[in-house]
Design a protein that fits this description.
Radius of gyration: 22 Å
Distance between the termini: 56 Å
Structural class: mainly alpha
Length: 376
């Protein structure tokens, strides 16, 4: 009988707590969104499965010696995985649209307004009972507004690692919901005539310009904001692999095998932080609400900046491409193109929107560097 009792006490049935069951249900919800709804499946699927593994009683996944423990410590706590993701994203990115129309850099910068506005909102939320965000935690929450998952993970792992699970899930969930969240904001802030604006054809960008551009970006980062150089540096290295034309094998590996492998481990590592004791609290709800506000304000700021630029620029800018200033590449650019074609099926905004979209990646990395330099 004693043996049976010991065996029973070691089963999941005897050790499950309702909080763990809730978090396993959350993991299953993420799997549903990834598989059925196809919302960011490359990340939500491993995050959801990691959440399930992390909440198995007596599984030991998150304890020293467990698989998820080492994945998190080696890849996320160290900041290595987000940097490798940036290397891959750089290799997948074409800076041509931004180089051809450098004014769109302002749209990417304006879309980062949501980050700093939400920072103040997170601090103000401390006036309500149940909330006690430090300035570092508020900064980590605010970076969700950049719609850049690797940047959010990188900054949070440095400033507020205990909030990593909630912030990562919020960041990637809102990135996945770009086609749902952005269009109503875009339509509300623009008229039909503004959405019909046709932009001037982009000029052809030379190979020399594309090679020199990442070096110029990195040089400016080193001179003015070294704290952002880990993210910007890896992004520029990946882009140089792509544009140099002399390391096709490295470029192919970074764009495919490396980024795929890192994505698997990054998702599992984030999922490991979705344990019931870290996720089920009032602060998590606050993070989700503030993240949505940050994303909405970033979208609105990009659109409004484009409208403002039209007051002074000779060549008109379709305000819809301002929403692509958030760095959900290339989904935000596709949404700008889709909303534009609702009123004019022959107006192709995709390449124009890629300018602020790429600028948004750089902008979110710069914003993270500013916050890290001020608060580390």
């Amino acid at each position: 009988m004693d043996g049976l009792l010991i065996l029973w006490q070691d089963t999941g049935l005897a050790n499950f707590q309702w909080q763990q069951l809730v978090m396993i249900a959350v993991g299953c919800l993420l799997l549903y969104l990834a598989i059925v709804r196809q919302f960011e499946p490359l990340l939500l699927l491993p995050i959801g499965f990691g959440a399930i593994l992390a909440n198995i009683p007596n599984g030991g996944f998150n304890e020293p010696g467990g698989l998820l423990y080492y994945i998190y410590e080696v890849g996320i706590a160290s900041g290595v995985f987000p940097l490798l993701i940036f290397l891959g994203v750089g290799a997948l990115t074409d800076f041509g649209a931004l180089i051809a129309n450098p004014k769109t850099l302002l749209l990417g910068a304006a879309a980062q307004f949501g980050i700093f506005a939400t920072l103040l909102g997170a601090v103000a939320l401390n006036e309500l009972p149940g909330f006690a965000f430090t300035l570092k935690e508020a900064a980590s929450i605010a970076i969700i507004g950049g719609a850049d998952g690797p940047t959010a993970i990188f900054l949070t792992s440095r400033l507020a690692p205990d909030l990593l699970g909630a912030i990562a899930v919020a960041a990637y969930s809102y990135m996945a919901l770009v086609p749902i969240i952005q269009p109503p904001i875009m339509r509300a802030l623009t008229s039909v005539e503004e959405r019909k604006i046709r932009m001037v054809q982009l000029r052809v960008v030379s190979k020399r310009e594309k090679i020199l551009f990442p070096m110029l970006v990195l040089g400016l980062c080193v001179l003015f904001l070294p704290a952002a150089s880990p993210l910007i540096g890896m992004f520029c290295l990946g882009n140089l692999f792509r544009e140099s034309g002399v390391v096709e094998r490295l470029s192919h590996t970074v764009q495919n095998e490396l980024i795929n492998i890192v994505t698997i481990f990054l998702g599992l590592g984030v999922g490991s932080k979705l344990s019931a004791d870290k996720f089920l609290n009032l602060q998590t709800l606050g993070i989700l609400v503030l993240g949505a506000l940050a994303f909405a304000m970033g979208t609105a700021a990009g659109v409004l900046m484009a409208k403002l630029m039209n007051c002074v620029c000779q060549d008109k800018i379709n305000p819809l491409i301002g929403s692509a200033g958030v760095s959900a590449v290339p989904m935000a650019a596709r949404v700008s193109n889709k909303v534009g074609q609702e009123v004019d099926p022959h107006n192709f905004l995709l390449m124009h929107a890629m300018g602020p979209n790429v600028a948004g990646v750089l902008g979110s990395a710069v914003a993270a560097g500013v916050l890290l330099a001020l608060l580390k």
